[in-house]
């Protein structure tokens, strides 16, 4: 008991010394409040707080941010960044931010496309609670589960599972630096979803801090609350501390391949055929996505379009080739195109790491992509005709670095009810489109040029994608769809984005939000509103 009192006293002394060195009233009040509310686990002040007046602030702010567009000088910055090392510290932060009446932003991986976990388009001030030091992973192979803290990356989760078993896995994201906390709140799709569903479909428990600063699990939060956080988007219902995930069983060896096709190699007709088979005809053990981007033509000085087919098959090469010969012979896949490897090795392959990188690199948790970019998404229910594809090629030639990624649905995704969790994009969806355009400079004219191209291209695609509503993926946040400027959007205003992300599930999300956070403490530019 005496040691706890001693540590607590030393923490308070450090806080007092820190207050003497700063004159920012928000920072001062936040420090004092945390000191009073963190007695159970004192905060190591020197390694947990970063303010704009210290040299390490910028590096910490930028550490996991992918989109440099959200880090330019004109974008508002937080009053401070707090990196808790214990769950009780997060509790204290929620209590203190609420008392001070300021905004709270929670960051687990920093992948959010509009930077909502580390910046704000709403009225300042705000603080960022960065969960990157809460990354514990406990794998229980005997019971087929794992507890994973929100600050861990999905790559770390994959590695720790593979350490314990070569025939267990978890069906979640393709990008290994995704923070687990936010990733699963949006659904968490990946290359095994046609076999096992989303990451959020395979969550069996969770720990969350509610608007009162209370830590809840599935039993204490109730089934409606638990339903909402598995796909209802981050930042609306509380702070995810950890997920209990259900592991799935896989073969000890899987098969991967990559096959490129250019326009000169009949890419248009092959892609049209892919749309007809990728979701409804191909074996659910096969995930076959397509990257589409301009490339240099074989004719000197000319450009072409390259479609690159990347596949993961939960089985051996001979069965894969047979599946492809029967259902998609147009691609011309041969055994020599395929590589058999362990599932954990396939994680690096799908994430496009160089072949020389060891699997232990997954523990680094580092993003392989950092750039200025704008992204959007769509879901497609009918094959895009060849004339529509040719219109895409024409528009791609007008932009510097456009990219589309087509991810197939079908399989188990079509067999799970739209209302099972908030993620509604299930039966009838052939594939999801991710649009990205990226650039290398922050000048306003450059930003405007590329964003204008993206909007025009998005408008062109309207004829070929889902309608009433035109749907979108919540983990590819797009503020063009509508924005809550003051934290109190009406249901009508919020439906501009809510119906696109959640379809009919939006109404139930509003009901849950109104019950668990009636004061709308957890709010951001596209949060769920209260009634």
From TrEMBL:
Cofactor(s) required for function per UniProt: FAD
Keyword Transferase: no
Lineage: superkingdom: Eukaryota
Keyword check for Disulfide bond: yes
Keywords assigned: Disulfide bond, FAD, Flavoprotein, Glycoprotein, Signal
PROSITE patterns: FAD_PCMH (PS51387)
Molecular function (Gene Ontology), one example: oxidoreductase activity
InterPro entries reported in the protein's UniProt record: BBE (IPR012951), FAD-bd_PCMH (IPR016166), FAD-bd_PCMH-like_sf (IPR036318), FAD-bd_PCMH_sub1 (IPR016167), FAD-bd_PCMH_sub2 (IPR016169), Oxid_FAD_bind_N (IPR006094)
Signal peptide segment: 1-23
Family to which the UniProt record says this protein belongs: Belongs to the oxygen-dependent FAD-linked oxidoreductase family.
Protein name per its UniProtKB record: FAD-binding PCMH-type domain-containing protein
Organism classification: Eukaryota, Viridiplantae, Streptophyta, Embryophyta, Tracheophyta
């Amino acid at each position: 008991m005496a040691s706890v009192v001693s540590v607590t006293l030393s923490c308070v002394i450090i806080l007092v010394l820190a207050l003497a060195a700063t004159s920012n009233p928000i920072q001062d009040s936040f420090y004092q409040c945390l000191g009073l509310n963190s007695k159970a686990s004192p905060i190591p002040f020197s390694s947990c707080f970063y303010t704009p007046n210290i040299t390490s602030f910028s590096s910490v702010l930028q550490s996991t941010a992918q989109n440099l567009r959200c880090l330019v000088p004109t974008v508002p910055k937080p009053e401070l960044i707090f990196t808790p090392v214990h769950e009780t510290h997060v509790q204290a932060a929620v209590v203190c931010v609420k008392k001070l009446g300021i905004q709270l932003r929670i960051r687990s991986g920093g992948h959010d496309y509009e930077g909502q976990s580390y910046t704000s388009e709403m009225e300042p001030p705000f603080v960022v609670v960065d969960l990157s030091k809460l990354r514990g992973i406990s794998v229980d192979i005997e019971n087929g589960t794992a507890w994973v803290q929100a600050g861990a990356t999905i790559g770390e989760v994959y590695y720790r599972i593979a350490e314990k078993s070569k025939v267990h896995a978890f069906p979640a994201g393709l990008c290994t630096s995704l923070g687990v906390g936010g990733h699963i709140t949006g659904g968490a799709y990946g290359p095994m979803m046609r076999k096992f569903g989303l990451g959020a479909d395979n969550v069996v428990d969770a720990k969350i801090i509610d608007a009162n600063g209370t830590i809840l699990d599935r039993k204490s939060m109730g089934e409606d609350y638990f339903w909402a956080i598995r796909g209802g988007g981050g930042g609306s219902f509380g702070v995810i501390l950890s997920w209990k995930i259900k592991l799935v069983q896989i073969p000890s060896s899987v098969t991967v391949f990559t096959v490129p096709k250019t326009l000169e190699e009949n890419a248009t007709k092959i892609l049209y055929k892919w749309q007809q088979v990728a979701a409804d005809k191909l074996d659910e053990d096969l995930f076959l996505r397509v990257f589409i981007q301009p490339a240099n033509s074989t004719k000197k000085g000319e450009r072409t379009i390259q479609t690159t087919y990347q596949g993961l098959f939960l089985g051996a090469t001979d069965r894969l080739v047979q599946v492809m010969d029967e259902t998609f012979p147009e691609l011309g896949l041969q055994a020599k195109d395929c590589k058999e490897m362990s599932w954990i090795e396939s994680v690096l392959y799908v994430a496009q790491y160089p072949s020389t990188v060891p699997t232990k690199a997954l523990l680094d948790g580092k993003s392989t992509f950092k750039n200025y970019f704008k992204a959007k998404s769509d879901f497609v229910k009918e094959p895009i005709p060849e004339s529509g594809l040719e219109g895409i090629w024409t528009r791609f030639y007008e932009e510097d670095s456009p990219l589309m990624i087509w991810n197939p649905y079908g399989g188990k995704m079509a067999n799970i009810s739209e209302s099972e969790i908030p993620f509604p994009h299930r039966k009838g969806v052939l594939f999801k489109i991710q649009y990205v355009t990226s650039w290398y400079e922050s000048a306003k004219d450059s930003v405007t040029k590329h964003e204008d191209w993206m909007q025009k291209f998005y408008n062109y695609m309207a004829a070929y994608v889902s309608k009433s509503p035109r749907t979108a993926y919540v983990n590819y946040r797009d503020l063009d769809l509508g924005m809550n400027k003051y934290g109190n959007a009406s249901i009508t205003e919020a439906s501009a984005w809510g119906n696109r992300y959640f379809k009919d599930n939006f109404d139930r999300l509003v009901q849950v939000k109104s019950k668990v956070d009636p004061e709308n403490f957890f709010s951001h530019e596209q949060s769920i509103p209260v009634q």
